[in-house]
Design brief:
31 strands, 4% helix, globular, 3 helices, mainly beta, Methylamine Dehydrogenase, Chain H, JINGUBANG-like, five-stranded antiparallel β-sheet, Myosin heavy chain kinase B-like, repeat, WD40_PAC1, 449 residues, WD40_repeat_dom_sf, disordered N terminus
Length: 449
């Protein structure tokens, strides 16, 4: 269905999409997958779960019952309509949870998204950034080149990371909020000119090929913001972590060789820590020091070293917990202690790669190449219970964003709006209750064995 302004297809399920030839091992499933991803992740064997002190209660001891099979939302939603689910017998409050809408736009796979209030920003491999308001197309703008791999929102400003190694800054017109214009890029052209004069500002990336240290020379895969300090972090396939000052687009610091392979995720965390995850199978913790002329980040912990690529990170600031998704489908997590971060356990809800993660309140969301989203709730003592598995996408999940549903939330039960972007070219919108029944409670209620 198209709205009156044209071009926007809302509540429509996309079918008949074409597959790409170079799927890669991340998306291996029991049957040939329908979608591919251009990301150069490496398929490695993981030993992270072998030393875990405890693990999620989401699967049965014999391993025969998965969260997916017990999910109350394990069904294909009907096309064209908002979908509401019948209330649970014990709690009518959960009757409005589940899939509440979809956005389909025939222009490319969804690689990135960000939400702010009633606004949603989506990035695709068509170089377009679309702006949606209340699930209707509101505006859009386009970069000259580069698939949109990351989006960050700061007030009326939008920062985007691209496949061409550039970070662009956009701003809505004060007179017409539907018009977005680029007002800068990282690094600023003046800083590029100034740095290019001195040979010491160049770094050799391959034989007889040098580039400016303050510029990324490969895809910008991830962005993270520290609003308090006015800093933007960028991770890249060029293996570097860069720190930018937002006010003047200046590169404050470049950590060359932060990892031995592509950086897939960067997060500004808690207690002055910044976290990075890489295709080299490691997760690293960096401590930020503010200096007179810039910043200094020092690695304080290597939290994980495994053969499988690290594909996604998420931080819960309510519990000071770091979550890490990998190409083997596992989610490791670490808890903040007086002695640093300690490994807390492993969540097992997917059998193939976890490609995106998000947190909200007590909830943790993991999106996977298996086309589903596992919803976990952190309980007392660091135990995590799987509340549900959200299904309906027909391609791997690539990105997630979460906003609180202030209209539906109560003092005793916060509700969250979850946006999921997929390689099936759609964005789906879900409502999730923080105090919904766990999978085990659903199993007991409906006598599932």
């Amino acid at each position: 269905m198209r709205n009156d302004e044209g071009g926007t297809m809302v509540m429509e399920q996309q079918t008949g999409l074409h597959s790409r030839p170079n799927m890669g091992t991340l998306f291996q499933q029991s049957e040939p997958p329908s979608f591919s991803d251009d990301d150069d992740f490496h398929n490695r064997k993981s030993n992270a779960s072998l030393s875990s002190p405890r693990y999620s209660t989401t699967t049965s001891g014999d391993g025969e019952v998965s969260p997916y099979m017990m999910s109350p939302w394990n069904s294909q939603p009907s096309s064209w309509h908002l979908q509401h689910h019948q209330p649970y017998p014990s709690e009518n409050d959960f009757g409005q949870d589940g899939l509440i809408g979809s956005i389909v736009k025939e222009e490319g796979h969804i690689y990135s998204l960000a939400a702010s209030g009633d606004m949603l920003y989506t990035g695709t491999d068509s170089k377009n950034i679309r702006v949606w308001k209340n699930l209707k197309e509101f505006s859009g703008f386009k970069a000259k080149s580069g698939l949109v791999k990351a989006i960050i929102i700061l007030g009326d400003r939008v920062f985007t990371g691209h496949q061409d190694g550039k970070i662009r800054a956009w701003k809505a017109s004060p007179t017409n909020p539907t018009v977005y214009k680029k007002f800068g890029s990282f690094p600023a052209i003046g800083h590029v000119i100034k740095s290019s004069v001195k040979p010491k500002n160049y770094v050799e990336v391959r034989r007889k090929c040098s580039v400016l240290r303050i510029k990324h020379f490969d895809a910008v895969s991830c962005l993270s913001l520290n609003e308090e300090q006015g800093l933007l972090y960028s991770g890249s396939w060029d293996k570097t972590l860069k720190v930018w000052r937002i006010s003047d687009f200046k590169c404050m610091e470049s950590i060359d060789g932060a990892h031995d392979d592509a950086i897939n995720s960067v997060l500004d965390g808690f207690s002055g820590l910044v976290f990075t995850g890489s295709a080299d199978g490691t997760v690293k913790s960096w401590y930020r020091e503010l200096q007179e002329k810039g910043t200094k980040h020092s690695m304080v912990q290597q939290l994980l070293k495994q053969e499988n690529a690290v594909t996604a990170l998420a931080v819960s600031r309510e519990s000071d917990t770091l979550y890490c998704g990998s190409s083997d489908g596992l989610v490791n997590f670490w808890e903040h202690t007086n002695r640093g971060l300690a490994h807390g356990g492993v969540l097992r809800g997917h059998k193939v790669a976890v490609l995106c993660m998000a947190t909200a309140g007590k909830l943790v969301f993991s999106g996977s190449a298996d086309k589903s989203i596992c919803v976990w709730r952190r309980e007392e003592g660091g135990i995590h219970a799987c509340l549900s598995v959200l299904t309906g996408h027909t391609g791997p999940l690539k990105c997630l964003a979460v906003e609180e549903d202030h209209q539906m939330s109560t003092e005793t039960n916060r509700k969250w709006i979850v946006y999921s972007g997929s390689l099936d070219k759609s964005v789906k919108v879900w409502r999730v209750s923080e105090h919904a029944p766990t999978m085990n409670e659903i199993k007991e209620t409906y006598h599932i064995h």
